[in-house]
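Colleagues,

For the teaching module next term, I've prepared a clean inverse folding example: a structure given as tokens, and then the sequence designed for it. I'd like students to try predicting residues themselves before seeing the answer, so please don't circulate the second half yet.
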């Protein structure tokens, strides 16, 4: 729906006349991220197990492409830190750069898309602190170029890192199990689901890499 065309209709002119329009600038930043190797070794410290895990990850074309996208390569690039371009999502831009945050009044934030996973848990974090905020829901997807808001940043990082650690642990555990099954039984339903699983855990790797330089 074109909001301008909608506002031009006679039946909507009066309601729209009470709207205050505030144009917010996009908020972006550049931030160093930890190497993929450093992150994975925190979960798989045994060198031989790490090598096998890395080898199996790089066997998958889509996994390799996604790692190449974030680290500009899948060789020694995975051992190095990198600069990541991150962006503050629209709902968090509204939360942090307007006066909607309130513990007295209920505020509804409407955006064109449902909240990503991190936006959703950040809003839940604020709700836990007593702020009255409502959104239209989330899609549970992880966006690796997500920017951390300044408000309660250090406190939220500790909370978010715990959540991301759980995602990574589950992803690694299931990935190893799937590889073991596919090696012994040939291609099966589990191995075909590997790409979907790794998308989630890879996004968690990338976001955790961002957060590791903030905490």
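(Answer key — instructors only)
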């Amino acid at each position: 729906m074109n909001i301008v065309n909608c506002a031009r209709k006679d039946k909507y002119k009066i309601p729209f006349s009470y709207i205050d329009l505030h144009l917010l600038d996009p908020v972006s930043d550049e931030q160093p991220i930890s190497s993929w190797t450093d992150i994975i070794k925190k979960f798989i410290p045994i060198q031989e197990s790490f090598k096998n895990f890395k080898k199996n990850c790089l066997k998958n074309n889509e996994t390799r492409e996604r790692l190449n996208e974030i680290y500009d390569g899948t060789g020694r690039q995975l051992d190095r830190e990198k600069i990541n371009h991150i962006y503050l999502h629209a709902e968090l831009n509204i939360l942090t750069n307007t006066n909607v945050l309130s513990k007295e009044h209920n505020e509804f934030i409407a955006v064109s898309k449902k909240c990503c996973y991190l936006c959703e848990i950040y809003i839940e974090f604020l709700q836990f602190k007593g702020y009255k905020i409502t959104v239209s829901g989330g899609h549970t997807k992880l966006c690796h170029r997500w920017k951390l808001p300044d408000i309660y940043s250090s406190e939220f990082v500790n909370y978010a890192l715990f959540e991301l650690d759980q995602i990574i642990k589950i992803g690694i555990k299931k990935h190893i199990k799937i590889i073991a099954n596919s090696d012994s039984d040939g291609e099966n339903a589990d191995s075909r689901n590997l790409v979907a699983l790794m998308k989630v855990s890879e996004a968690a790797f990338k976001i955790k890499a961002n957060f590791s330089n903030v905490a």
